[in-house]
Amino acid sequence: MPSEPAPISDAARHALEQELADLRTERRTVAATLQDSDSAVGDRADEADELQRADDLQRLDARISEITTRLRGADTAGPPPTDRVGVGSTVTVRFADGAEETFQVGETAEELDPSLVTADSPLGRALLGHRPGDTVNYSAPGGRSTAVVVSLGRSTGAEA
C-alpha cells in the first residue's frame, strides 16, 4: 500500500467494508474453535489442528489490520481527485493507434473487467497524477507505448 493516504471510490470502500465484516465473522468462528491449551489433552494431530487455527487467526488479524488502515487512510485523503487522474477516477485515453477508451482507475480487480485499470498496472501507474492533455508512457506487452489523457471524470462507482 502507498505510504501517503490515497482516496478510494465508493465501490471500493463498500467492497473493503464487506470483506472486513466477513473477516471479523470468520475470525470469531476460528477463535471459538481454539482450545484452552492448559486443559487440552490430545495427540499430535490435535496439536497440528490447533497450530493451524492459530496461524489462521494471525492471517485474519493481519488482513483485518490492513483493511482498517486502508479505510482510515482513505478517510484522511478524502474523495478521488477531479483535476488529475487518481484511484477512483474515470479517464478517457487515446492510444498511439488513435483508439480511445474510457477506464476506471481502481485499487484492485476482483474479476476480469475490461473497463478497469488497476492503479498498480503499468498503464494505471503511468496515468496517476496526470491531467487532460498529458501524454503518458508505459510498458505494454508489445514494448513501450504512449497514451494521451483525453478527459477526466468522477468515479461512477463501477469498480471494486
Automatic annotation (TrEMBL):
Residues 7-74 form the Transcription elongation factor GreA/GreB N-terminal domain. Residues 81-151 form the Transcription elongation factor GreA/GreB C-terminal domain. Keywords: Elongation factor, Protein biosynthesis, Transcription, Transcription regulation. Pfam families: GreA_GreB, GreA_GreB_N. Residues 41-54 have a biased composition (Basic and acidic residues). InterPro entries: GreA/GreB_C_sf, Tscrpt_elong_fac_GreA/B_C, Tscrpt_elong_fac_GreA/B_fam, Tscrpt_elong_fac_GreA/B_N, Tscrpt_elong_fac_GreA/B_N_sf. Residues 34-54 are annotated as: Disordered. It comes from the Bacteria. GO terms for molecular function: translation elongation factor activity. This is GreA/GreB family elongation factor.
